[in-house]
Batch of 4 targets.
Target 1
Amino acid sequence: MVSFAQVAPIVSALKWNDEGLIPAIVQDAENGDVLMMAWMDEAAVRDTLATGQTHFYSRSRRCHWHKGATSGHVQHVESIWLDCDGDVILIKARQIGGACHEGYRSCFFRRAGQSGEFERAGEPVFDAAKVYGAAGGAGSGSTENLKEPNHA
Amino acid sequence: MVSFAQVAPIVSALKWNDEGLIPAIVQDAENGDVLMMAWMDEAAVRDTLATGQTHFYSRSRRCHWHKGATSGHVQHVESIWLDCDGDVILIKARQIGGACHEGYRSCFFRRAGQSGEFERAGEPVFDAAKVYGAAGGAGSGSTENLKEPNHA
């Protein structure tokens, strides 16, 4: 897990959008796969820095979520990068289980095929119905389940 | 370069934000590095699909830009991926030169250090002042130069 002597310089370097948010790309520190993109507000950035695990802000539900709080599929932060404009964060993280609420390692599991249709590539790494509840992504009562589909 | 028999299925699968835009992450197809994140509107997606090179929409300048139009540092699309929510695109591309208008291969060239300050990691791969003009990123008259710093 990363640790920082001071959080303030990181927070002050970030450029927030009109909603006070910044997009955060999470990349698998082990194999380089892009796992997901979600949004952070300042509190989510601070929680991520304080705990060494990713936290985000759900725009649709207007609340914070700790990635993996329900599923155990947390993301251990290994390094934090900022783009040239200062308005996008890249987090390299060690992903436990899978990042995607549909059971895949990465949320980007659909690839545009020759026909122009998006096709599933690869297989799920866990059973989403078991992990998030029998109702799957449609409101099982799992806090994380309800939040993760709205991560962007 | 990728080619698609039909563009309509790809375009119709995308979920646009209130501004009619979708974030597009570009990943280096050779080494997996995340190169940049920028925004696309429908026209940019169509231009990207039609030409096999990335096109974006600049929110700050309210105009389209063809990545590499000035610098020659185009991105040849190898594959297009969509996340589970359908609202973020991942493009794996073969990057010519560097993606960043500051001369780096990736726009994510600053890493948060132990002190909490973002520090430059690695070296530029081209001379931004030469490629974009002597004024660097501060308005040299290069169309791309003026647009690229505003890519997010």
Target 2
Amino acid sequence: MQFRTVKTLNGLNTSQMFETIDALKTQPSLARFQFRASNTWINGGENRSTIKGFYGAGREDDSRTEPFVLTNGEPPVLLGANEGANPGEFLLHALAGRVTTPTVLQAAARGIHIEELSTELEGEIDVQGLLGLDNAVPVGYRQIRIKMHIKADCPDEELDELLAFAQGHSPVCNTVCRPIPVTLERVKDQGPD
Amino acid sequence: MQFRTVKTLNGLNTSQMFETIDALKTQPSLARFQFRASNTWINGGENRSTIKGFYGAGREDDSRTEPFVLTNGEPPVLLGANEGANPGEFLLHALAGRVTTPTVLQAAARGIHIEELSTELEGEIDVQGLLGLDNAVPVGYRQIRIKMHIKADCPDEELDELLAFAQGHSPVCNTVCRPIPVTLERVKDQGPD
């Protein structure tokens, strides 16, 4: 009887990771993913997304039996009742993941064991832009600062390399620092009249 | 005895809304906000943010007694166990809020009553970039499409104007279409040695 050893590093199944990388090298079209969200406005600054299916690795994923349900809200000072974190805060959370996960993946590929990793994010925004009060004021975040604390079994220089990789190859500087096309289209109802 | 009438439209207290707008016109510095998130890596593609305090309207906010806790995860095909929506999906949720809330606010300011509003979002990504397999492949979303369904008590032309405002004045096209500076800095431990 033979046991198959599952190798893990940083909580990742590295055998599966290298198999995935090999598969993508042979068939790059498997790397195409489409993620989706359906959002419904509730009231005021409250709205809710359900997230379940996505396309990736050449097929429609069916691993999720229940959807993830996420609620945007606003604090009282922005006319809400703290129904949830606000969209700007959800964006910071997304960025935290988009810095952390590539760092952890890249560390695993290099054989580095990460002991601790945390990030602190701060985003500066002037809501005059959002409210349309002053066209000279940029809408959205003026700047986002991310501070990372990381402890791993490698020299400091390697940690800096890892971070440079994470900054260059993570989607952070691609959905935020680099402009990407976003289209917003109103779907016209085809009513009975 | 006198009752104060609270006027609401689209679930927003419009008296408070116009008072806020007036206050910001008189003292624009009140419009400066800083949002924050603290994220801790758990394992593999799982990491968790806590979000509570923020600065805005000239002071540190204290309206939240409990933090919002948000968990990033990855599906099995991306080496995870669906511990939560993934960072790319959280980004779509943030964008949904950042299109919806300004639309609702602007409608309220114009006296338009919104009956229904929902959005469908799709983001295309090629994970070769993320994994560093092909430097020619852009990292992060190549494109995001947002479709909005909206029903309100106004003519179609006004809805289109509202959408044009939302696209021009919402933070969507500022944290995504427009590059903004993101800094990522490693905090060096000042250990005892």
Target 3
Amino acid sequence: MDEYDVETVADPDLSEPVLVEGLPGVGHVGKLAAEHLLEELESELVRKVYSTHFPPQVSIDEGRAELAAAEFYAVTPEDGRDMLVLSGNHQAQDTEGHYGLTDTFLDVADEFGVDEVFALGGVPTGELIEEYDVLGATTTDEFAETLSEAGVEFRDDEPAGGIVGVSGLLLGLGKRRGFPAACLMGETSGYLVDPKSAQAVLEVLQTVVGFEVDFATLEERADEMEEVVRKIQEMEQQNAPAPSDEDLRYIG
Amino acid sequence: MDEYDVETVADPDLSEPVLVEGLPGVGHVGKLAAEHLLEELESELVRKVYSTHFPPQVSIDEGRAELAAAEFYAVTPEDGRDMLVLSGNHQAQDTEGHYGLTDTFLDVADEFGVDEVFALGGVPTGELIEEYDVLGATTTDEFAETLSEAGVEFRDDEPAGGIVGVSGLLLGLGKRRGFPAACLMGETSGYLVDPKSAQAVLEVLQTVVGFEVDFATLEERADEMEEVVRKIQEMEQQNAPAPSDEDLRYIG
Amino acid sequence: MDEYDVETVADPDLSEPVLVEGLPGVGHVGKLAAEHLLEELESELVRKVYSTHFPPQVSIDEGRAELAAAEFYAVTPEDGRDMLVLSGNHQAQDTEGHYGLTDTFLDVADEFGVDEVFALGGVPTGELIEEYDVLGATTTDEFAETLSEAGVEFRDDEPAGGIVGVSGLLLGLGKRRGFPAACLMGETSGYLVDPKSAQAVLEVLQTVVGFEVDFATLEERADEMEEVVRKIQEMEQQNAPAPSDEDLRYIG
Amino acid sequence: MDEYDVETVADPDLSEPVLVEGLPGVGHVGKLAAEHLLEELESELVRKVYSTHFPPQVSIDEGRAELAAAEFYAVTPEDGRDMLVLSGNHQAQDTEGHYGLTDTFLDVADEFGVDEVFALGGVPTGELIEEYDVLGATTTDEFAETLSEAGVEFRDDEPAGGIVGVSGLLLGLGKRRGFPAACLMGETSGYLVDPKSAQAVLEVLQTVVGFEVDFATLEERADEMEEVVRKIQEMEQQNAPAPSDEDLRYIG
């Protein structure tokens, strides 16, 4: 297998689509958001990207094996612009893989004529969130203005550590290759899978890209998570040893 | 030395052999099973595969040094189909090595006209096993059906973490290269080298591939392991500090 | 993106400039020194070096994303020789990256006709420093003599562990490529960002290269750090648990 | 710089020399032995091998920087065969580097017409040694016989973990390239730099290769180490906390 191997599954025509990336990360915010899009809107699998920088692993679904891959779906909603949605279960396992995979993803974006890139993710605050702000980072002032009008916050030096992984490189390499790119980061505690943060991010994306989705299933999932949080807080009040952060990180 | 270096030791004709892989892994189930095959049936070393992704190491046997390698043996039992058995003491040391070695192994399989791949391994349950079920994962529905009839269990989303390493990639890359491939995973505690789990896996393989082997030496080894387990349980009842999981993992 | 990617931002003529490197390291001495130069003297960004060996990361400044890079600035002070100042926020993430980046940096130095290389850094002593000595290491005896006259100390087998990273390789690879190169290492505790050590290093560089800068802002920063140290010592006297070394390392 | 870069320093004619390797390892036995050879016999530096797989580091000797390298010396003693002695302060930092460096070392051996390879090292026993046996491993039966006659012990499955790093690969890759190769491993506690173990290894080498060296300086160094051991044992008897293994490992 090549270091980066793009499999063409379908080749629909898209009209100046936006790329929407939601790979695993903090609070699984980006991944939840991308998957919710794919569940609520009609979508077609168009590309699979395999790489020797992904974990050497197959996932098993009802006894059938699937090689680790990232997947591109074409989404053509009635309202709003066409989208190319990038989802998957893995990040690259090493530094060079992050760069190489992001370049490969931008090659696919090029093929489909993508003219704007949205990387979705979460930004950890370390505490439970009451109001779900969405932070932004972009490569152009025009893009920043559009997002500001949609309620995205731009703060000096935030996130302090920059943006790491594919989301960050879609901006860094995207800028060098001439794609206007933005990262939408939902605030999240960082301790729990966070459907509410994913919803906040998607609400911004709806406004900017122009589609509409139902949030019922995401809200249900959020209710389940709140039940978990409520139980933890009860346990804490009873002085029982609470589940550790490590436990919480993987609930959901 | 090349990154992947295949040494031809012998070149017998095999008739549509199946590839049987048993490299080190959970409970050493796959490796025990493959080695038992090679002890019980006549076999001929046909290929050695060296790689700069194997540990930089020689093993010493009676003062003679052998470079880290994986080995292919030709097995042509009287009953049943010809087999190409892949065994060895090492896994690749990095992500790219897992992909590259698996591709190299499938190249050898191609050369010998292999038309079905069996990866043997263990699936850890975290507790001592009473009844040794064999879990399966395949790349085709037909293959799954055959294995189901032979008693292999297919469970939704099991193993939960997918299959990692060469065993997993033989399915993932095998599928992409057109090999029907299956992984047979014997349940095992994960704490001990597990000859009983290896026997359970081999019994399925016997049924499907059609050969027959004696299990006496594997049963002896299993009795030795049970003696170890019995002693540990005694120690636990006497409230003596039991050997840690870490200790147990390497017994045998 | 290529493994090493040099972006030309400007191309001024420099007259036999010296290369002055100040990337992150012990006590951030080199980086503080290089940044102080760039703040106090007029400078022009001339090259950006991107690499797949840098962290897969963008930094965010007022909502705008910048891909991890090292930067070369041209400095042409009224007094003294022209300088090419290399600064940035990152070191390579792996061994080969250190070698490859240093070679790339020397390629840029070649382009600009650099004829002497100064790597700036800190050498950890493990205790708070009263008098800030500057240790030296060079590739030629002539260079060592010049530096000795400027007050740089040369000690047998110091630093004991040699010099690691880009600073070390600028000497090692520089020597092989014919650049006279020196490393100026300010003594520093190793626990705190150390503006005083940076000043000591710059004072040597002033003498040798012939420019002049004001140290007021560096002295202010040093006063702030001393306040931090004073508070820590107070806390220690009150037997309160002091901040750990780990905490201190990142103050500043 | 190339991944592996061989610098020719001198090019004397050697007559069917043996290669003697002594890079850092257990108890620094191999390195001590090789360095003692170079101190006691006349030698000439003939090759330096640089590599991007060595640490990105220069060592400093009286203020002069030297890039990490391995060095080959030509030794032509009056009695006995010519030798090519390989010494240095570093091992490769990764798996592929071990393979690539060993292949590069064997290329140099080829150039000089080497017809036998001796890798020198230590084998850790975990306890202080009374009688310093030398264990052997070879690639040919003839070589084993010669060494047995010189007092080298060959034990089944020892060392249990095989031989790791350049010493192991000189046998593994050497065998594949047609060099008869042997590893001479002096028993050593593994806790201390061990000049006595180095002497034991050199005494075997003297017999087999036919040179003669004085051991006075090695014996002095051994006396110093014994003094260290005596003090530790005293401290233990006084129930004072003894230096940890970790401390001891770096004494000397």
Target 4
Amino acid sequence: MYLKYLDEKLPVKETGTTTVGLVCKDGVVVAAEKKSTLGYLVASKESEKIFPIDDRIAMTIAGVSGDAQTLVRYMRAELKLFEVENKRKISVKGAATLLANILQSNKIFPYYVQLIVAGFDDSGPAIFSLDAIGGLEEEKKFFSTGSGSPIALGVLEDGYKPEISVEEGARLAIRAIKAAIERDIGSGGKAIDVAKITKEGISIERHEL
Amino acid sequence: MYLKYLDEKLPVKETGTTTVGLVCKDGVVVAAEKKSTLGYLVASKESEKIFPIDDRIAMTIAGVSGDAQTLVRYMRAELKLFEVENKRKISVKGAATLLANILQSNKIFPYYVQLIVAGFDDSGPAIFSLDAIGGLEEEKKFFSTGSGSPIALGVLEDGYKPEISVEEGARLAIRAIKAAIERDIGSGGKAIDVAKITKEGISIERHEL
Amino acid sequence: MYLKYLDEKLPVKETGTTTVGLVCKDGVVVAAEKKSTLGYLVASKESEKIFPIDDRIAMTIAGVSGDAQTLVRYMRAELKLFEVENKRKISVKGAATLLANILQSNKIFPYYVQLIVAGFDDSGPAIFSLDAIGGLEEEKKFFSTGSGSPIALGVLEDGYKPEISVEEGARLAIRAIKAAIERDIGSGGKAIDVAKITKEGISIERHEL
Amino acid sequence: MYLKYLDEKLPVKETGTTTVGLVCKDGVVVAAEKKSTLGYLVASKESEKIFPIDDRIAMTIAGVSGDAQTLVRYMRAELKLFEVENKRKISVKGAATLLANILQSNKIFPYYVQLIVAGFDDSGPAIFSLDAIGGLEEEKKFFSTGSGSPIALGVLEDGYKPEISVEEGARLAIRAIKAAIERDIGSGGKAIDVAKITKEGISIERHEL
Amino acid sequence: MYLKYLDEKLPVKETGTTTVGLVCKDGVVVAAEKKSTLGYLVASKESEKIFPIDDRIAMTIAGVSGDAQTLVRYMRAELKLFEVENKRKISVKGAATLLANILQSNKIFPYYVQLIVAGFDDSGPAIFSLDAIGGLEEEKKFFSTGSGSPIALGVLEDGYKPEISVEEGARLAIRAIKAAIERDIGSGGKAIDVAKITKEGISIERHEL
Amino acid sequence: MYLKYLDEKLPVKETGTTTVGLVCKDGVVVAAEKKSTLGYLVASKESEKIFPIDDRIAMTIAGVSGDAQTLVRYMRAELKLFEVENKRKISVKGAATLLANILQSNKIFPYYVQLIVAGFDDSGPAIFSLDAIGGLEEEKKFFSTGSGSPIALGVLEDGYKPEISVEEGARLAIRAIKAAIERDIGSGGKAIDVAKITKEGISIERHEL
Amino acid sequence: MYLKYLDEKLPVKETGTTTVGLVCKDGVVVAAEKKSTLGYLVASKESEKIFPIDDRIAMTIAGVSGDAQTLVRYMRAELKLFEVENKRKISVKGAATLLANILQSNKIFPYYVQLIVAGFDDSGPAIFSLDAIGGLEEEKKFFSTGSGSPIALGVLEDGYKPEISVEEGARLAIRAIKAAIERDIGSGGKAIDVAKITKEGISIERHEL
């Protein structure tokens, strides 16, 4: 029922979206454009789609904004709680598994999202993709979500090399998202956000188009 | 189920509506026309669509009147409670996040609304848009909701300038809503309400057509 | 049946499109952006949407490309035939009526289009809008078609003045289409085409974005 | 009706397909992979998807094999007839327009195809894309059809440069199709066919994977 | 409409069927089991599914018996006519193309069949597969049709070798069909028919199970 | 409802998949390819589909990833609990029956999966297949799940012999999955995982393609 | 809803099945073939379809395996409980009534089964048939369930005589199931299981085909 409303009746913002995540030798890169839509209307050209949820872990969101933002708020609270209770930071895999469990346990009225959890922990850089009901996959190279993802994947398949540095990875991520913006009507906006996550932490830069 | 009744069976008032909100250098402006409909019938030409919910925060409503008015009552009560419990006023962002949580937690039987929360707090002027299930976006320039919003957005895209004053913003808001009234059957009525929110508080004026 | 295929199955290019037409004191202006789509994919960023069909008459197209282009080819042939048979040019109203008849006579398997016929003849400047089954309306001020038309109409309602000159009209048309490109995911591309039709004939200019 | 059968009942081969076409400074390049499918089954790993229809004009096909192959047979016969009747070769644009007319005149029971017509004539290299009901677009840079086209377009958007040579174009086309094969379940097979069309004529090479 | 009756209303015999065809170094082999069904009922355990249509060309049929048998009769008559008119036998490719044209020209009310045309002509052994609307593919190695074809293809993919002899090919074909009979409820019967087509002509043998 | 979402709306990863399991004289073999899909897109080429759930018991998964992974996590926890409570390892049959009960008790909102539970216990090697609502079958020879299973079953029907050794069984399993990868668009990836389960425990090897 | 899933989406094993039950003068006979299906695929050739649930009572199952097997597990537990609580064995009629109550109470999400409960108690031999929602009928002569039941009933109508002995009844049951296997694509497998229930208890024999 619920999903049917989304399309047909309810005025709900969606992030058509292109997000990408790359595993690099010294960290991970995640990037996203900034457009959100409400049916055929551009609802925003300045949407946030990359959210730090811990010192060295970030999420990217695609899908229905209200659902995705709620999950970000949950995860931030859960990770803080984890740290307090366990006196240590959660691993990237731990955060992704926690999120998968939240998604799966809501599968009857699912969150309409596609997510990337990316971060850097004691095991080094790691990226996980999650679908709407908690399907979880560790990505050893790269991943992309949202309506523009097939286009971005074309660029990544063609240009990704193992042992890529975070700097090179960020440039490749921008090229992938630029191509998606050119060809996907659900992606766009005025800038691309690029987050580099290394052992130093998360730095998010805005790349004007 | 519920939404299906709305269209097909239940005699329910809806605000087809055009509302706009603009961030100005010295405050925010929100404006709305005053028509509401019941099916194809004009139910009222004097509907209120702008509601102060705190000294310097207002909401605009679009969608099903009964849902939206309930949310206004909730918010007024919650903000009073917040002030009592915390001995301070809530920020605009805090009010908007609270409203987003209410909307998201009702997503199985959602409120059929599109809302703007606008206000002035210690950080200055701020506008947030919310969709029916709590998708929340801070608007740095302007936003519009309701059936007439594409038309109003045309005027705002064309005429908005950063660092606009509240006075100029009010005039631009009126022009945007006038254009929407001309071209959207869901918008109309005898007057336009315009609220200016500055550090002095909220002042709502009626602009006769 | 046929229309159902268009949406659900057939790989068919559509011009989501924003086109506008304005009646000016010394001629008419028509303008259009240049994006065409294939589902969610941008099929082209350089689509032609303004077609001269006679010395001083042009058509703009919105909808399914294959249908609209066919109508352009028909009209060009028909207007040549008219000239040969009648030893005079057809009037703008005559051309629009002819096109309406073609559309109406195909209403069982309709052309999936929204059209503007604009031109300059002995009676001066004239603009006609046509829907998919031949609904014909003379526009005394301005008109807009396509998915971005509500946004463009916002700008035109706000900015159009009677007795506008072709030069001013062209500038207003560009502002209207720019606003639509900003807010309609079906409109875009790299440039705006603007045609000025005066008693001197048709001149089409490309306005880079 | 007919299209409904295609999906639900009739055992019909489809070329999920990725084809690309590029305009180069000294000719055009078209390329395609070689997989065809029958529902979830791989029907062939050696399908032909590039068909010369004249000395210097070729077609690529995507969609339902039976429909596309029929169009190839029509076009070959029509172009021979044209040459006999007109004592000259048809132009690339002429061939594409002829094909558009065939497609449009069958739109009630449409051919379920997506086509590229590419060639070299007195005006130089030219590429046209056609959709199922004859929507025709001259492509100034490149185009791609079929289920893998978004992925291929990613590579082409990222890697295409104006004034590319046919040799470079062929390498880029192969990279684009390779990426599509990696990520599109409808594309694959054992080799990529690449056709270079220059003023010398058409040469098709098989690039083993 | 017609196809809908087949499933739901009309009592029509179908050959669920497994047929296979293999290209061998000295000829071609086609084989088929002998069950036909009427809904869930086994209509026959002795159906013919291999039909010689010329001295050295045979067809296998899968799908609706009445449709397929009609096509066999057409082809036999057409090939005789061809021989009389042209004073020579048709090539295997010629026969297959002729059949493709018949199927394509009936695509509005299609023949519900999947066919293999296999034979030996001056160019040596050749196999063509045809789908319901005339999609035609030359098979360089092997092909299989009908509900049991995925299972048979498993055996053929695993066991086929280039330069296989007709004798070996016949044994592999029998193994493929046996596996399909074991696992496909639409395939069965009391025996497998195997046709060897070499330059000597067609010999059909019955292999009891 | 839920299943309807899976196909039409929700972005959910599925393992089109081919998995096989064989009972051998000295153990069991399970094998799987490594592709997962998201609609027409290849979501991963490195998916895990074989999961040890105890020292000598493993599960293979096919269907919706999020559902299957959840069941793996449940089973691992349940088997640990069983061991603690009962001071002994569960039998393969016991594990399969436990899983069947979990599946059956969720049949209103079923897990969209097809599973094999394979292992070695005091009774020797054993394989059980389970469908989405807990239909449980002990397989005395071999089984296969997923979109490529008919093709794999062809190879297994043709090549399986009782009293096969684990080494031979592993080679046959690889041949079966290779054939499925060739002919099933839902199966693929860069390697085949093969698990041999004997009384020594589970060893999983990666077989590069 | 649930039943719709079974047909269209869920990979669920079904026993197309032929089972028969005969009342004989000195006991009852039940028999079943051993094939189960998954759509068009033969999922197993060695399915169990006769289950003893007490010393002298057995059930046969047809329909969805997961549902039927669950009912067998329930019944075994319930009958043990009955014996403990009542210090006596339940009657055949009591067992059948208990099962009918379970089926009826789940009619909102029904078990997709057709069942025979057969046994010998103080009142002598007795057979009861049950449908999916608990419709219960005592069969005084014979009964048959599953897709092959019309064919089996043909043989039973023809050959059954009152006062038949268990030995003769077993031979008749085998003939009935053999005929069904020949003509029903949902029935088959490598053997027929035949259970004779007399005052001595249950003996199940396997009759190879």
